[in-house]
Amino acid sequence: MKSILIALFAGTLMLHAENPPSAIDKAELSYRKGIAAEKAGDPSAARTAYTEALKLNPQHANARYRLGELRLKSKDIAEKGRAAQYSDIILPKVELEDVPLADALNYLTALIGEQAKEAKKDAPPGFVVQDPDKKLGEGQVTLKLKNVPAKTALEYILSQAGAKARYDEFAVVILPAK
């Protein structure tokens, strides 16, 4: 059995050595890299990959379509990528009891910083509250969570405070929900 597997593996290697990947295969690989970059929230890398796919195979309809969609949706894709940074950080314990939104955000910032440092990652951008009508200072936040992504903790805090988040390039902007 073992010798059969070795023979099959050797035959596969010889077949690949005789038939190197074609431009069409390379184009498909570039296209798939573009899809992965989009999912990771990196529109620049996605654009590069789709453009490379089209250079290798100008008839690659999916790459042409995704490149067009990327032009329309690159801001949304980048925002999703920035939001995903908060999902990657797991907070072991979040406990708040009747604190204002500003204090809850300061506490969350400290927890995120600690966990990012332990994981040897860069801390994601901090929070900036944009509340010209001073509506967000009225609510109190109470929360008790364990082993939760930072994004989930933020969503709970914001829902109690009647707020929403916008993930900008250098900060998470906290706004009144309505």
Question: Overview of this structure, please?
Answer:
It contains 6 helices and 5 strands. Helix 2 packs parallel to helix 4 (61-87), helix 3 (43-56) runs antiparallel to helix 4 and helix 5 (101-118) runs antiparallel to helix 6 (150-161). It folds into 2 domains: 2-77, Tetratricopeptide repeat domain (Serine Threonine Protein Phosphatase 5, Tetratricopeptide repeat, Alpha Horseshoe); 88-176, Phage tail protein beta-alpha-beta fold. It is an alpha+beta fold and 178 residues long. The protein has helices spanning 2-18, 23-39, 43-56, 61-87, 101-118, 150-161, and strands at 90-100, 127-129, 140-149, 163-167, 172-176. The N and C termini lie far apart (67 Å). A hairpin with a 4-residue loop joins strand 4 (163-167) and strand 5. A 3-stranded mixed beta sheet has the order 2-5-4. Strands 1-3 form a two-stranded antiparallel ribbon. The relative contact order is 0.12. Residues 1-17 form the signal peptide. It holds the Pfam family TPR_16. This is Tetratricopeptide repeat protein.
Helices and strands in order:
Blueprint: H1 2-18, H2 23-39, H3 43-56, H4 61-87, E1 90-100, H5 101-118, E2 127-129, E3 140-149, H6 150-161, E4 163-167, E5 172-176
Parallel strand pairs: 2-5
Antiparallel strand pairs: 1-3, 4-5
Helix pairs in contact: 2-3, 2-4, 3-4, 5-6
Protein name: Tetratricopeptide repeat protein
Pfam family, one: TPR_16
TPR repeats: 27-60
